[in-house]
Write a structure and sequence with these properties.
The chain contains twelve helices and five strands. The protein has helices at 18-26, 43-52, 57-86, 89-100, 107-114, 116-123, 135-146, 179-207, 213-232, 246-262, 265-300, 302-310, and strands spanning 6-7, 14-15, 158-161, 166-170, 174-178.
């Protein structure tokens, strides 16, 4: 059976020699004239002819149709993505909460729920072994509180506003604060709902007559480290408002003042910068997670699509 010639779909040139067709495609000084069909000799077309001898035009039309369909879909997706990305994050969160009949947790609620078990153990002295936190642990707490994922939008109560260089917090309602005051508000929520119990635990362990001298010395080192961290975030210790004996209160207030007096401006600046970096990094990632969640819901639920398109 005689094989068909290799045929150029553009100009109609044909030959039974593959190398001649390759030369026609790749070595001609002039471009192939489109005498027969207005078709672009893409690499796909050339390789198809060199393999199968003849280009099937129906295949090309089908390929173009599929490509155009994908292009339209991609364009629509880009429009949707841009629309969702340009909306205010708090507006998107509020809309999603309404759509799913959920309630957005306040900052206090989130800290309380996340560390309830630890606080119960600290208050009851329920840890089998000593419980101590260092500076890295404090940073990890801030990291946990300031991050959320697409499956926990109801915990997304910290938003960094890159335009205004402010941080928005949900405290029962959205509140926009300068970075310094927002960080202080975040730290106050962590302190009030978790770290106050930690400080109380350390003090009680220190004054407990059954505590060994080794543990007392170790405990006081961690108290001082905690007081150093409190100084860097400009917050006061829990001991100020505790109901312990005045003598004990005075002793630990003196320790706090001694620690505070030794903290340098450099330590204050580095600690604040580290906290801001943690919060802003997590907030930006939270917004990406939020957008991904909204796009998924947008594509699956028509009523939500209508709601999101009305936001501007």
């Amino acid at each position: 059976m005689q094989k068909v010639d290799y045929t150029c779909p553009s100009c109609g040139y044909h030959t039974n020699r593959k190398e001649y067709m390759r030369r026609h495609f790749y070595q001609n000084v002039k471009h192939c004239p489109k005498k027969k069909h207005d078709i672009e000799l893409t690499e796909e077309v050339k390789q198809y002819v060199l393999t199968n001898r003849v280009w099937h035009f129906k295949k090309q039309a089908r390929t173009k149709t599929v490509y155009n369909s994908l292009l339209i879909q991609q364009t629509n997706n880009n429009i949707i993505n841009n629309h969702i990305s340009e909306l205010l994050p708090e507006a998107k969160i509020d809309l999603y909460m309404q759509h799913t009949n959920q309630k957005l947790l306040t900052l206090d609620n989130k800290v309380e729920m996340k560390y309830r078990d630890q606080v119960d153990k600290l208050d009851a002295d329920g840890y089998k072994y000593d419980f101590f936190l260092n500076k890295d642990d404090f940073y990890n707490i801030i990291d946990e509180i300031s991050q959320s994922n697409r499956d926990a939008i109801n915990e997304m109560n910290i938003i960094y506003d890159d335009n205004g260089k402010k941080i928005k917090l949900y405290l029962g309602e959205w509140k926009s604060l300068r970075t310094k005051y927002a960080i202080k508000e975040i730290m106050f929520a962590i302190k009030n709902n978790y770290l106050d119990s930690y400080e109380s635990y350390l003090i009680n362990k220190y004054i407990d007559p059954n505590t060994s001298m080794f543990t007392k010395q170790k405990t006081i080192e961690y108290i001082e480290e905690y007081y150093r961290f409190l100084t860097c975030i400009e917050l006061s210790p829990f001991i100020e408002s505790s109901d312990l004996d005045e003598e004990i209160i005075d002793e630990f207030l003196t320790k706090f003042k001694n620690v505070r007096d030794c903290v340098t401006i450099g330590q204050l600046t580095r600690t604040f910068k580290e906290i801001v970096e943690i919060v802003t990094r997590n907030s930006k990632q939270n917004i990406k997670e939020l957008n991904c969640k909204l796009i998924n819901v947008f594509n699956m639920e028509e009523d939500f699509k209508n709601k999101i398109l009305t936001l501007n």
